[in-house]
Amino acid sequence: MPHFKIYPLSTGTFYTAETSLLYYLANDANPGVKIPAVYWMFVLRGPDVVILVDNGPGDPATWGAKYHHNYERLPDQEPIAALKKLGLSPDDVDIVINTHLHWDHCHANHLFSKATIRVQAAEIQEALKPVPAHRSLYTPAEANPPWIQAMSRTVPVNGDEELLPGIQILALPSHTIGFQSVLVDTAIGPILVAGDILPYFDNWTGRWGYDHIPSGIMEASLHQYYACFDRIEKIKPVAILPGVDPKVAETEVYG
Ligand SMILES: [Zn+2]
Predict the structure, then answer these.
(1) Which of 93, 198, 223, 229 suits 175 as a labelling partner, its CA being 20 to 30 A distant?
(2) Would you say 82 and 9 are in contact if contact means Cβ atoms under 8 Å apart?
(3) How far is the CA of 123 from the centre of ligand 1 (A)?
(4) Residue 57 Cα, ligand 1 centroid: separation in angstroms?
């Protein structure tokens, strides 16, 4: 089985996320406390293949201002500049996996012109016609967002799929109905690139007396969400990489 290494790259920081957006009801004494959220792009490098899991939000001055919200992006956090730090160019990317199509995860899909995009079919349907309460999280299709621009290179996923030896896509309806995480074989064991099903490390390791805490933003039912937690428990990954925790940066290379 080939082993992969996982490199997290920041594509920007949203400094004023509220606790209640990231931890569902867990800290109802302080729902308005602001905490930082880092928009991670994960690069999976294996023998002869480069895979991205998510690739960050759109430019704050254009997409952010017009359709979503502001956040800080330094020049070296622009996705192509960030990749360059690993000696990679956009054409080196073979596959892009979007955990979901919220605007902060897929706004560089169009930049990787040689890559096949893999996202759940159910997530594409949701992004085209989001449930009203989640409209602000998806860029309107009429605006021709990057994931639409890359649609001709998109191959929808239906449920779980072994993408390649060592790379397993897991359908986990939770934060969104078409959500997926990626289980990666590494030299130290399987690592779950979880994404926003677990925004922070302690959504999984527990806090305030809870074993695990769902995101404050969810589209599946809570029962479905906890069933995903049960699945992850059974898989027993050696590490779980959350969607937006600044502490991901404490390790330069996972696996
Ligand atoms: Zn999201």
Answers:
(1) 93
(2) yes
(3) 11
(4) 10
